[in-house]
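Troubleshooting log. The previous structure file for this entry was overwritten by mistake, so regenerating from the original sequence record. Sequence copied from the archived sheet and checked twice against the printout by T.R.
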Amino acid sequence: MRTLVLSFMIVIVVSQRGNCQNDDFIGLTFMFWNVENTFDTEDDPNTDDDDFLPGGVMRWTESRYWKKINDIYKTITAAGEWTTPDIVAFCEIENRKVLEDLIHHTNLSRYEFGIIHEDSPDERGIDVCLIYRKDRLKVYGYKYLVPYGMNRNDLGSRTVLYTGLAYGNDTVHLFFNHWPSRKGGVLAGEQLRTNLESLISRKADSILTSRKGRAKIIIAGDFNSTPDEIEILSSDSRYSFINLTERFAKEGSGTYRYMGVWEVIDQVIVSDYFLSSPEGLYVDKKSVEIFSPFFLLTKESGYPGLTPFSMYRGRRYRGGVSDHLPVLVDCHIWPEILQE
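Regenerated output below.
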C-alpha cells in the first residue's frame, strides 16, 4: 500500500514539475542530493559504520535498507519527469555496492547507468559519487582530489570528485563536494574547509586558463555553509563564478532546515561563461531548482511549516528518505545547434 501511495504521489509531482518547465526542453539535467547515511547492512572493518548494522544502535535492517534504495530511485524518477536526470551526484553513500543496488535492483535498471565512485578517507566511510546516463554522456576523465600538501590518508573527510563529461560536442567540468560539518562550532574543520576552497579555486582557474576562459564549470555539493559564508573562487581566481542557489536564501527557502529555519547548504556554482555561452550548452539564473515534492517533506515538531522528511530523528527511525532536499539544474542547448 505504501508503494502504491508513493507511486501515485510521483505521478502528481511529475505533472506539476512538467507544467513548470518548457515542454520542449532539450539538454542536460543533473541532480545533487545528500541522501543521509545510506549505508548497506554489512560491516566494513576499515570504517566506523557500526551504528548502521542490524545489531547497531540505529537498528539498520535489510528491510529498511531496501526501502531507502527504492525511495531514492522513486525520487530520481520523479525529478526526471518519468525518465531520469542525466547525472545524479550523491553524498553520504557508503560504498559502490549501494550504487550497484540502486541502478541494478530498481527500475533504474531500464536505463544504461554508469558509476563513478571511490572509497573516501572519511572515518565513517561515506563518499561523494555519481551515476550517469552512458547512452547520453561520455566520461573522458575523473579524479578524486585532496588539498595541496595534504596526505589522502590523513584527510579524515571526503575528497572532492572532479569529472569531465562530454555531451555531443560540448564538455562540462564538474566538481562535487561534501565539506566538513560545523557541528563543533563555526571553527570546526575550518582549516580543511579553507584548503578545499583553495583546491577548487586553483583547479577551476587552471581549466579556464587552458581554455582562454571558455570553460563550462559546475561546482556543487553540500558545503555545510550558507552562500554568504563561503567565498569560493571570489578572491583567488581571475574568472567570475555565479552562485545559482544564492537566490533561494534571499527568498527564505532552502535544502536543509535547522530549528525551524531553512538554510541553503546544498549549492550550485557555475562559471560565468556557462551563463553567457553563445553555443552548445548554457544555463541561466533560473536553471536551478530545489526539488521539494510533498513526499520528501513532513511537519516539524515544535516549529511551524514543513521540513525534509529525514530517515532518523536522533536514534528514532522515522522512515523518511533524507534530511536534505535535492537540487536540480537544467542545462539548455541553443536551438540552432540542434538544427546543424
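Helices lie at 2-20, 62-79, 96-104, 190-210, 246-251, 272-276, 335-339. Archived copy saved in two places this time.
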